[in-house]
Structure to design on (409 residues):
């Protein structure tokens, strides 16, 4: 790439513990390593501007009136107060495109600036917000009959998807984490969609970090402990293991969220570590015997790759991105339904040797996956966006001139 594109990334989350923030941090590091011109505008609690080689980071603080979405993430109703400041940053940087990661505050500002400044928009799909909204509404309406909550959830999910599709339809190029998701977006939006896969640090997440040597089964979950992650299924898993006569086990929950209290009341074998980072997180993975991830809403599932790099097989659902990261019967299982999820966990709990073989296969599958490879693909998408913008610029300029002439006459 003789002249890399100038990219401005607008991302609501950067320092938090979630897949979007991890990907954003890795993308910034990639641009810095390659000496690519890059502007990152993101939320945070330590506002200011930081220059790191070819990368300029602008961190903006949310107002105290912000609405809490997660334990460490809020939505600022007044974030547009930063419009003038962000516009100055964009005009000074002169990006070839603006890349947004969600329809949140910065996604909205990015889309607006693209429209007003005639800058191409790139949008990456990280989160199924329509499914999140449906799951959380169903939880909030839990006091109503099941049929009512399901109907309400279905309606919200449908309307949420329509809004999300309208928003992403403004992009010239989109990005998605898996091939099926990319094909689906391309078909729905009639826009080119490129892969934005994820890497994994196979040195940090490594079986060598295991410190446990007992015979107990340690079943693990890592992530936000929230309704959309389907974590209540872990209580069914515990009952299934006990019904099978398995008593010597722990269900290790790494993370925080609104479902923690519910799980603590119901899991007799639960172990709750809170949020872990770095080597502490790597040790937690390596000390697991099986990774159980009941989410049906994840678009990818970075935690599946981190568990695999740690030599741990996974049981996942047949919805969302994680099913594409597990080779059924080789590196774990893809469950057809909740009952099958529980049955697969019990099956592997009874076969420790098979668990070890699957864990080794999982490690081998992800050893060659790197963040650099993932972002090489992303920069191909940026280059395609720049090419499309150059092709359409003369036509757009001619149309503007025609309109101006018509207005004068």
């Amino acid at each position: 790439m003789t002249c890399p594109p100038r990219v401005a990334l607008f991302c609501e989350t950067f320092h938090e513990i979630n897949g979007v923030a991890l990907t954003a941090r890795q993308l910034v590091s990639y641009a810095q390593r390659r000496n690519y011109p890059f502007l990152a505008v993101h939320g945070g609690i330590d506002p200011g501007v930081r220059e790191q080689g070819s990368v300029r980071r602008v961190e903006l603080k949310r107002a105290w009136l912000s609405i809490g979405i997660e334990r460490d993430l809020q939505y600022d109703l007044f974030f547009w107060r930063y419009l003038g400041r962000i516009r100055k940053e964009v005009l000074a940087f002169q990006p070839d495109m603006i890349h947004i990661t969600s329809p949140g505050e910065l996604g909205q500002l990015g889309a607006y600036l693209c429209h007003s400044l005639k800058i191409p928009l790139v949008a990456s799909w990280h989160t199924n917000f329509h499914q999140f909204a449906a799951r959380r509404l169903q939880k909030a309406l839990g006091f109503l009959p099941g049929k009512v909550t399901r109907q309400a959830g279905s309606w919200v999910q449908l309307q949420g998807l329509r809004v999300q599709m309208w928003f992403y339809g403004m992009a010239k190029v989109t990005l998605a984490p898996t091939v099926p998701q990319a094909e689906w977006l391309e078909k729905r939006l009639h826009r080119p969609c490129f892969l934005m896969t994820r890497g994994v640090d196979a040195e940090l997440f490594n079986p060598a970090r295991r410190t446990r040597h007992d015979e107990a089964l340690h079943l693990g979950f890592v992530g936000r402990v929230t309704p959309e992650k389907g974590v209540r299924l872990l209580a069914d898993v515990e009952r299934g293991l006990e019904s099978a006569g398995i008593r010597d086990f722990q269900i290790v929950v790494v993370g925080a969220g609104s479902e923690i209290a519910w799980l603590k009341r119901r899991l007799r074998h639960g172990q709750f570590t809170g949020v872990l980072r770095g080597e502490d997180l790597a040790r937690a993975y390596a000390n697991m015997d099986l990774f159980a991830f009941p989410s049906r809403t994840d678009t990818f599932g970075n935690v599946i790759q981190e568990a695999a790099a740690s030599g741990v097989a996974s049981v996942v659902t047949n919805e969302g991105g994680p099913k594409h990261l597990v080779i059924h019967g080789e590196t774990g299982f893809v469950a057809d339904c909740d009952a099958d999820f529980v049955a697969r966990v019990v099956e592997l709990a009874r076969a420790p040797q098979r668990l070890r073989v699957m864990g080794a296969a999982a490690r081998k599958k992800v050893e060659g996956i790197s963040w650099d490879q993932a972002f090489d693909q992303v920069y191909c998408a940026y280059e395609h966006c720049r090419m499309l913008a150059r092709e359409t610029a003369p036509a757009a300029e001619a149309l503007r001139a025609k309109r101006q002439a018509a207005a004068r006459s």
In short: The chain has two domains: 7-199+371-408, 207-366.
